[in-house]
Design brief:
There is one protein chain. The protein has a domain at 5-64: Winged helix-like DNA-binding domain superfamily/Winged helix DNA-binding domain (Arc Repressor Mutant, subunit A, Orthogonal Bundle), CATH 1.10.10.10. A 3-stranded antiparallel sheet has the order 1-3-2. The protein is elongated and about 50 Å long. The chain is built from 6 helices and 3 strands; from the N terminus they run αβααββααα. It is mainly alpha-helical.
Length: 125
């Protein structure tokens, strides 16, 4: 199943909230993302159907292995671009917003090469 930027954002949010809170419900996701509970409900059902997450009998959300993989990749990109933009002098709030856009638009190949290039520069210092 193809996952779109909004789905990636939901998975990333669930991952971040799990690290922060331990257990996550849809209402936590709605609050964190600033979206309505019905929007989260639609996204959760789509992601469940795609095999990216499950919901237990207490309505807690759990990433599947595939969902965790996607979430970790998006979160890595988000952190990478946020850090680089802030280091370049971009306001942290703007860097967060821009990183969220970039993380979805860049190809796997370009991200890999860019990350490799930055790591090589860091090693050379």
């Amino acid at each position: 199943m193809k996952i779109y930027a909004s789905g990636e954002d939901y998975l990333e949010t669930i991952l971040v909230l799990q690290k922060k809170l331990g257990m996550v419900r849809s209402v936590d996701v709605a609050r964190h993302m600033g979206v309505s509970k019905p929007s989260v409900c639609v996204a959760v059902n789509t992601l469940k159907d795609g095999g990216f997450l499950t919901m237990d009998e207490n309505h807690f959300l759990h990433l599947t292995n595939e969902g965790r993989k996607v979430a970790e990749e998006i979160y890595e990109r988000h952190c990478f671009f946020t850090e680089r933009l802030i280091a370049a002098g971009v306001d942290p709030k703007t860097a967060e917003v821009d990183a969220c856009r970039i993380e979805h638009a860049i190809s796997d190949e370009s991200f890999s090469k860019l990350k490799e290039s930055v790591n090589n520069e860091d090693k050379a210092r």
